[in-house]
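Pilot study result, target chain (694 residues):
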Amino acid sequence: MSRAISLPRGVWAVVLAFLLPIASSAMMPAASSDAPQRPALEPLNRLPRMVQEYFVEQVGRIEQRNDFRRAVLEDRDDAEAFVRDVRRRIDLCFGPWPEKTPLNPRVTGVVERDAYTIENVIFESRPGFLVTANLYIPKGRDFPLPGVVGTCGHSATGKAMEAYQAFAQGLARQGYVVLIFDPLGQGERLQYPNEQLRSEIGVGVREHLYAGNQQFLVGEFLGSWRAWDGIRALDYLLTRKEIDPQRIGVTGNSGGGTMTTWLCGVEPRWTMAAPACFVTTFRRNLENELPADTEQCPPRALAYGLDHQDFLAAMAPKPVIILAKEKDYFDVRGAEAAYESLRRLYRLLDAEDNIGLFTGPTGHGFSQENREAMYRWFNGVTGISDAQSEPDLTIEKDEALQCTPRGQVCELDSRPIYEFTKARSQALAKQRPSELTLSRLQPRVRDVLRLAESDGKSAPEYRILRNWRSRGYPRPRWTTYLVETEPGIHAVVYRLGSEQLLSRPRATTKRAVLYISHLSSDAELREEPLIAELIAADPDTDFYTVDVRGIGESRPDTCDENSYFNPYGNDYFYAIHSIMLDRPYVGQRTHDLLRVLDWLGEAGHDEVHLVGKGWGAIPATFAAVLSDRVMQVTLKNAPTSYSEIAESKTYAWPLSTLVPNILASFDLPDCYRVLAPKRLRQIEPWNADAKPVD
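Predicted structure:
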């Protein structure tokens, strides 16, 4: 895991190229050259902490419920039932698993050293999906020996990184057979290599985000793919005659600590584990504004009441040690809380000595003191060695550990992950109904967006803000309303008219136009030609705009400075937490819009012309499908389809605009089709790269 990521070159630059102009351009109408120039206006953003505090409250309540569930365990039967239930819930997050297919392993090279041999190994975790690994086999020992699968954290060189070589060598010198493998997107397994065999996206985190966000559309989870690589690595290790299957461990640091933790929850064959520099709590990461990779955020995990410690609880009562760091960005307080909770569980199972915590004094990384704590723990379980410190090591050059001729599996025709996503999308398209009526589509929309039925009668509460000086809007008077769409969340609505309203909204026309902003209503009221066109075409109709949560007036200022458009920034941060909560961000924004439509109905607007642009066109589409109040729809820069995004190698739509598993049920063209009777008008649709369609 990387603490901060700048916007990468190449594909992700499309995000800025096509989405930033509104936010960064001058915010005033053009003036004559001899007129006095007014300074550009920054878009209004009066609720920058709203989204963060909402999510903290949601996750905090879940953690309280989880703590209570664990606290009421009283005896061994309760503890065993809890462990079984944890395993069931984990399987709901990570499964279903693919069929196990032939590994087709091959050894491509051997490195001879004084105390061990290194075999460079390639196997297939899925057909045509190659995994590169190094197998360390001790010399001068009687077989079989304990085995360990090593999972790598984020590094450009994967298994060849010095700290990861170090723990594999250290274990081998003490008598363990160690298989350490490259994660996808790292080492020899780049998924987006260019002609120079360098990543077009960015190694590690960036490839994980790019592939993983896209996978959600087809119901896949990158964490499951990476865990499956680990399961198949274990399968390969157990084929070796050198291995004692009764003594099998797993360890890794950072992103490898993530995988070690997840593997504890999904694979029952481990007999010991040592995750390093990962285990804390979801709440601590959220409160500390710490983004995590796609694979570090299991879908529905929070909704199912799971936390990091539960994946280790799934191992109980087998021996597990949590390796933490005092100066890590993974909050050590969470690691301590996880340990104390697990210690109580293990005590109920008469195995309190089988759970441990070691906190090294330094910062993030699999440093020597943490490696030595891991050695001591594994040695205590296996009895293979009594060493208390790390033996002398010899760090190899990357080339010695390469399994492929030039260091990348693409030259061996390994299928990139995006091809699997494309194939899955095409398969789902064949399974979906070819024609969906409005009545059949509406429940599907509600289901994938996790929207409850609305009675349409109870209009939301709202506040009326004091207006600032003129913002240069196309009408002379305007009022701002904060419409409470749910506790802790306000949609920001501007009403433009010829008279100033200082109290409740009042319909002067039965019909209203409601514009859903792309990035900022305040900015787009000055900059967006479509708004000027709409007002000029129907000057007497009441005109409203809305910023749904996380947009415009509630654009978060959390995580890293100015991180909103960063693929690892705060817009992603809340989108991925929404997936863990099983409430897609698009669904939450659609809910905001539906509540604003209820609010407009109370004000006297029985007919609404719904207009959405860019990111705002997506909730506008879904709300138009669901609301009888919407009589006309205009969409500018709406995505052509989710299938196109899922089936493209490159795309520029952020995670906050994607809906998990939507393509198993329907696609956006199904919505566009049923909106034809509502006079749907499409203006410059955008393709997967957020560029106008030819």
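One observation from the pilot: DSSP finds 22 helices and 17 strands in the chain. A full batch analysis is planned for the follow-on phase.
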